[in-house]
C-alpha cells in the first residue's frame, strides 16, 4: 500500500490553508464524506456558484470547503477566417471528381487501386495564398484571399512516367475554376517518376517475396526467422534512402530485422540491394546480397555459399530478454514513485483564448493562426505580440538524418523525412502524458493518396509555470521582486517510422519565442560487430546505435514593424586601446571587447554560421523603425540547445538537396516563388533536387526588403546504451529563440501583473508588505483527471465516407510501412 498522498489542509478565516494538526481517523473520514457531499452539491444543477466556500452541519461545518473549479474550458475569441485552413474532406472529394472529368484528359485511376503504370492523384491540399492578399485581408479589411488547391498527380501511364503538380482554382469549384501546372516554385518543372512517394506498399510485396522465398530455409537457420508473406512472419524489411541520385534509377538497400517490439533495434546484418526501376514490379531485380561483409551478385550465389559451407556466419541472433526493446517498465521503481507527480492547474481558469473553427489563439498579448499540411504538419501564421505582427510564417521545412557505418545501409542512409510527411505522420497525443493534463487540443485533417483522416489531438496548447522567474532582483527601494515565468506552448508530435519528432513553439511574456525540436523513439540500429567500431556504440549483444546527424530546417518570415527589414550582423572583438585617463599603476592600455555592427547587404553573404564562441549573432531589423532610444527595432536569432549544423558536407547522397543543413541560418529575400526550402521529392534527388536551396541566394539585396530567415536546429547523435529503449527528449533536442532586440523601449514583461514587489519595512524590525497587483490564485477543487482515452482518428475513403476502423495489424502496416518503407511480406 502506498502512504497517504497528502495531509488534508485546514483553512483559516481568510482562506489560507494551514497544515493539519492532530487528526483522528474519525475526523479524516468525516471530512472526506463532507467534501464528497459538497462536491455532489456543486456538480448538481443547484451548485452553480464557482470559487466560493461552503459549509454543512458536520463537525467540520465551520471550515470552508472549496467548490469545484467551474470554468475549465478556454475563453473564446473570434478571429477572421483562417486563410491557411486546409481543404475539408468534402472539398477534396469534389476536387477528385472534378479532376476525373474526361475533358481534362488526365486519364486518372482511383489511387487506391492504381498500379504504378496508371495516372493517379497522390495529394490534394490547400495552397497558401499570396502574402500580399493575406495582408490586404488581415490588415486592410480586403476580401478574403481566393482559395486554390495544389494537386500532385503521378503520371505513371505517360510514355516517360513523370510527376507533376497542378494548381486548381479558384474554389469552390465553378465555371471559373481552371487547372494549370505548378512550376514556378520548383527548380525542375517535372519531377522524375523514380523520386515518387509511396501511396501504398503493395507494389513492393510481390518483388520482395520473389527475393526472399528462395531463402526461407537459410534465414530460418541463420536468423531463426522467415519472411514468406504470412501473418506470423518473423522477419521484416526496411529500405534505406535515397532511392535515386537524379531520377535516372530507383534502387534501395533493404535491411532485414526481427519482427518484434522495436524491430529497429533487431537488425540481422543481412542486406539486399534491389532495383525498382520502371513501373512493372515483376521486372524489379535483386542486384546484390551482403551478409557479414561477403558480397553476392545473386541469391543463387548466396545459397551456393551457404550450402557448400564457405559462408562465414555471424552468431545466431540473441533472442533472450525480448522486452528489452519494448517500452515495458523494468527495474525497481524509485522511492515515492508510486505517487502521481505534480500537475499544474489553472485555478483561475485558462488564460488563453481559442477560436477552434479558425485554429486561432491568443495568450498574454500573443496571437497566432495554426496551419497544417501533409508534408511538414503544424505551422504558425500571423504571429503577433501586443498588436504588431512579428512573424508572418513560422514553419518547419525538412528533417534530415545522415548516418555512418560499416554496412550497406548505415553507410548510405540520408533521410529527408518530408518525403514521408510529418503531417501525414502526426499521431493523437496521450493527454496528461504527451501534454499536461489541462492542455487543450486542436484537430488536424490530412489528405493522402488513399483518402483523408482527422486526428482530434493532433495539436496541443497549454500554459505552464516554468518554475523559474522571468526576472527578479533583491533590493531595497522598489527593487525587490519577481515577474513570474509563465510560458505557453503549442505542440505537435509526428512519428515517422522509428523516430518521434516533438515540435514545440513556446511563447514568453517578454516577447520571446522558443522554437524547439525534440526527438524520441527508436534508434535506427545497426548489427553490432567489431568492424563497426568508430561508427556508433554497442547497445546490446548484437545491436549498435549508428552515428548520425539530425538537422531540421525552419522558415521564419519575420516582419519587424512591417515587411521591409534588414539583416544585421553583430560581432564582438577584442581591442587594445589607450585612454588618457589610464595614467595609473596598470599601464597606458587596456584590453576590452568592442561591438561591431554591420548590415549584410546581399544574399551572397547571408549563408551563415553562429560566430565562434557565440561572439555576436544575427538579427532582423527595421532600419526605418526605431525605439525611443533611436535604435533600429529588431528581433534577434538566439541559439538555443545544440546549435549544430551538418557535419558531412559534400556526400553524394545529400549533394544538393539539403544545402540549408550546412548553416545555422541563412537569410534570403522573401518570394512567392521560393515558398519552401525543400520538397517531398528532394530526398530521392540529391543530384537534381526539385528545390535547390542554394539557388535562392542570387545576390539580391537584403536592405529593407521582405526577408526570410531559414534557421536550422539539430543534434549530433552519438548513440549510447541510454538510447534504449527510446532516445530521451532532454538531450535529443535542439532549439533557437527569436527574442526582441531594441524592439521595445524596455523589458515589457515588467508590465505583468503576475508579479510581486516587496516593500521593506519602514521601521527596523517591521513587517514586509507586498504588492501583488490584486492577482490572487483561486482555491477550488480541480476536476478529476479524466481516464486516458485514445483514438486513431477518423479515416475517410476516397469517396469521403468514413472508413471502418482498422485492425491493429492493419494500423501498424499503414503507419510503419509507409513511413519507413517497412515491409511485411
Ligand atoms: Cu538520432
TrEMBL record:
Keyword terms of this UniProt record: Copper, Metal-binding, Oxidoreductase, TPQ
Gene Ontology CC: plasma membrane
GO annotation, biological process: amine metabolic process
Occurrences of domain Copper amine oxidase N2-terminal (ranges): 106-172
Enzyme Commission designation: 1.4.3.-
GO molecular function: copper ion binding; primary methylamine oxidase activity; quinone binding
Cofactor: Cu cation
Annotated region described as Disordered, given as residue ranges: 317-342
Highest taxon above the source species: Eukaryota
PTM annotation, UniProt: Topaquinone (TPQ) is generated by copper-dependent autoxidation of a specific tyrosyl residue.
Cofactor stoichiometry and binding remark: Contains 1 topaquinone per subunit.
Pfam families, alphabetized: Cu_amine_oxid, Cu_amine_oxidN2, DUF1965
Modified residues (2',4',5'-topaquinone): 499
Positions of the DUF1965 domain: 265-331
Domain Copper amine oxidase catalytic: 343-749
Active site: 417 (proton acceptor), 499 (schiff-base intermediate with substrate)
Family matches, as PANTHER family: AMINE OXIDASE, COPPER AMINE OXIDASE
Family stated for the protein in its record: Belongs to the copper/topaquinone oxidase family.
Protein name, as recorded: Amine oxidase
